[in-house]
Amino acid sequence: MRHIISILLENEPGALSRVVGLFSQRNFNIETLNVAPTEDPTLSRLTVTTVGDDRVIEQITKHLNKLIDVVKLVDLTEGNHIERELMLVKVKALGASRDEVKRTVDIFRAQIVDVTPSVYTVQITGDAGKLDAFVQAMAPIGILEVARTGVSGISRGDKVLSL
Amino acid sequence: MELLSGADMIARFLQDEGVERIYGYPGGAALHIYDALFRQDKVKHILVRHEQAATHAADGYARASGKPGTVLVTSGPGATNAVTGIATAYMDSIPMVVLCGQVASHLIGEDAFQETDIVGVTRPIVKHSFAIKHPSEIPEVLKKAYYLASTGRPGPVVVDIPKDMTAPTERYEYVYPKKVKIRSYNPVTRGHSGQIKKAVDMMLKARRPVFYTGGGIVTSGASENLTALVRRLGFPITTTLMGIGAYPQTDAQSLSWLGMHGSYEANMAMHHADLIIAIGARFDDRVTNNTSKFCPTAKIVHVDIDPSSISKTVRADVPIVGPADSVINEMISLLQGREMANAEALPEWWATIDGWRAEREGKLYEPSQPGERLKPQEVVEAVYHITRGEAFVTTDVGQHQMFAAQYYKFDKPNRWITSGGLGTMGFGFPAAMGIKQNFPDDIVVCFTGEGSFQMMMQELSTCKQFGTGVKIINLNNGSLGMVRQWQDLNYKSRHAHSYMESLPDFHKLIEAYGFTALKVERHDQLDAALERMFADNDELVFLDVDVDPREHVYPMQVPLGAMRDMLLSKTERT
Q1: Has this prediction a pTM greater than 0.80?
Q2: Domain containing B291: what range?
Q3: What's the gap in Å between the CA of A77 and the closest CA on chain B?
Q4: What CATH code is carried by the domain that includes residue B387?
Q5: Are residues B47 and B157 in the same domain?
Q6: Tell me, what's the pLDDT at B520?
Q7: How many independent structural domains does chain B possess?
Q8: Is B149 in the same domain as B17?
Q9: Shortest Cα distance, chain A CAs vs residue B506, angstroms
Q10: Are residues B339 and B389 in the same domain?
Q11: CA gyration radius for chain A?
Q12: CA of B132 to nearest chain A CA: how many angstroms apart?
């Protein structure tokens, strides 16, 4: 099963490599990874999506917790949560397909953020499924480049991940 | 307020931390630190002949004393040479602080002379690592390093120190930090009471219980409490290779150690148990054999300080995260005034176990006949008797290691010193050296083989320099015995590169360093040689014993089988 694990990490050099190294060292897999500082400059928030059965996920969270740089973590998929990913896509926008791209962008509630006579750059946010669907819809028209941030997430309601 | 250079801070910190001996080897990036050590006399530096030996010596000291060992090496090759020793300590959860010189900050990343990203290289084999960014942070970082290394589940910590951080011209305020706090690191100090109560209830209801305890008992100094608990309940106990000595092996309740080459009765008892109380052990593959066939009828209580050890390979029915000593203590108090629910079951269980014991009695190995080569087991037994079971015993890795574990009986913890997790050939001799230098009045024996010894024999020179009287027993079978055994069993005796041709004349080699070498070729020479060997506790003596190269280590668990599936000799199996 797919899990989204959010981690508050010491914002120190080498901390990220310890997290990433743990996954390869213990033969766990990383589907997506996203990391940035939080409102507290001493902390980064790292979100990783991974796939595994309950035993594997238990080992992943236990080993992550053992890392000295990991201050706190939560498996967001254990409760209600919001998950978002942002994607920038460059697509061919020539002749008839120019309108087709625009229509599809509207259907997906995406935005065109850059325009040239032959290319649209589209920004789209949502869960991974929506982004995948958009890529599929655009594929016949001609995708030139894709940049995805990886999943970021947060719990619904009053639950917070903080110190 | 005292102003010190980074290098002087390191020397001063080691003094204030109570470090008496450090093991190391100098080099360019560490020279400021070496100069600071030279200008003081409280911390003694032992100059090894290879950095790997520094880590093993510090590790041996840590295992024998329970205190963290300290290593100082230079950048690049100095640090990479230490890697095997760091991994050895990591796998066996041994507290160790490794101070590594590094090229000056402005050179880092430029492939400077003797530059290695040692924090990167050691990342998967350390508990944590630090890189010094400013000289003023040295006292606090070092305190954190010792704190992390020695608390919770202990392990090695690497501190990377760029040369400019130790420059003699730059001075900063030095205060010894008595305490440090790390917000993300709070090792548990006691187990969950409800879980402990549940475990105690299960113990009282058990019909066929077995204690299975590991290195965690030795590490947490829980040996006394464990002994009290096991005696109170009257249950059988087996330990892992790492846990040998935590419960007196000569006691009737001890089934000796378990696993791949563990005792017949220990493996049989585990397989047939209805309750396994695992404390400070990690269900390692050399213990469990095939986990899907592991102890089919047993419920499992698992006590460990490290939550990630619990249910890692074998699922625990009652997991308890906590330090062994305090959890055992709580178990003892909960047992007060309570009785076993099935009082008749335990004597029956013991009768079954005694039956297993009797089956193997006197059949463990075939003794040698007069005029034949000695059996390695006989040598270990003779050493056990002449040292009255009181020596510190270190080993290298292979058949001799297993024979030493099987035939030397330990009644105290911290005396059996072996590389269990990583299985590092070359560990035994430098570890013995580290122990002897810190426990000069004790007898320190290193069992080794001609393969392992040649991996670290340069330390004879260190022993010469520091007058270190370790007793080295080379069980010489002229081949890499354990490899050969596997080749006999699995490769139709095709001995691919498991024989040692062109062995040196050990006699001449040892004498070249000015030490005494003894040679035993036949049974009737052994006693006199051992008398001579142990006559003077301060003298390094090397005993080269020709042992039977055809001997195998038994019992040996059958690959992919259950605990009870064992080869018992070349012709018998369960």
Answers
A1: yes
A2: 193-360
A3: 20
A4: 3.40.50.970
A5: yes
A6: 96
A7: 3
A8: yes
A9: 41
A10: no
A11: 18
A12: 11
- Note the CATH architecture for domain A82-152: 2-Layer Sandwich (3.30)
Residue B351 and residue B393 in one domain: no
Is residue B572 included in any domain, yes or no? no
Per-domain residue ranges of chain A: 2-79, 82-152
Domain final residue, candidates B360, B389, B418: B360
Q: Provide the CATH number for the domain around residue B239.
A: 3.40.50.1220
Q: Report which of B287, B137, B369, B268 is spatially closest to residue B574, judged by C-alpha positions.
A: B268
- DSSP type of residue B367: P
Question: Is B51 part of the annotated catalytic residue set?
Answer: yes
User: How close is the nearest chain A Cα to the Cα of B308, in Å?
Assistant: 5
Q: Which residues of B touch A (CB under 8 A)?
A: 119-120, 123-124, 127-129, 131, 148, 182-185, 306-308, 311-312, 315
The catalytically annotated residue of B15, B20, B67, B114 is B114
Q: What is the mean pLDDT of each run of 10 residues along chain B (574 residues)?
A: 95 98 98 98 98 98 98 98 98 98 97 97 98 98 98 98 97 96 94 97 97 97 97 98 97 97 97 98 95 95 96 95 97 96 95 96 88 93 98 98 98 98 98 98 98 97 98 97 96 93 94 97 94 97 96 95 95 91
Q: Which residue from A17, A25, A71 is facing B183, i.e. has the nearest CB? A: A71
Q: Cβ–Cβ of A71/B120 closer than 8 Å?
A: no
Q: According to DSSP H, which parts of B70-192 are helical?
A: 77-81, 83-91, 118-122, 138-150
Looking at the structure, tell me whether residues B420 and B477 fall in a common domain.
Answer: yes
Residue B296 CA to residue B269 CA, distance in Å, equals 12
- Picking from A55, A63, A68, the nearest residue to B184 by CB comes out as A68
Structure tokens that stand for A65 in this block: 């917790």
Q: Tell me whether residue B522 is in a domain.
A: yes
- Is B308 in contact with A25 (Cβ distance < 8 A)? no
Query: Is the domain of B260 the same as that of B382?
Result: no
Dig out the tokens for B296 from the structure: 């089919």
B-interface mutation test, from A68, A72, A73, most B Cβ less than 10 A away: A68
ipTM computed for the complex: 0.92
Return mean pLDDT, chain A: 95
Residue B2 a catalytic site member: no
A78 Cβ neighbours under 8 A, 6+ residues apart = none
| Same domain assignment for residues B222 and B328 | yes
Find, in chain B, the residue whose alpha carbon is nearest to that of A70: B184
Give yes or no for a contact between B272 and B297, defined as CB atoms under 8 angstroms apart: yes
Instruction: Note whether A63 contacts B120, CB cutoff 8 Å.
Output: no
The domain boundary residue, chosen from B302, B333, B360: B360
Active-site annotation holds for B195: no
Produce one character per residue of B324-360: b if its CB has 16 or more CB atoms within 10 Å, e if not. bbbbbbbbbebeeeeebeeeebbeebbeebeebbeeb
| Within-domain flag for B558 | no
How far apart CA B307 and CA B305 sit, in angstroms, is 6
Nearest CB partner across the interface for B185, out of A25, A68, A72: A68
Domain at A2-79: CATH code? 3.30.70.260
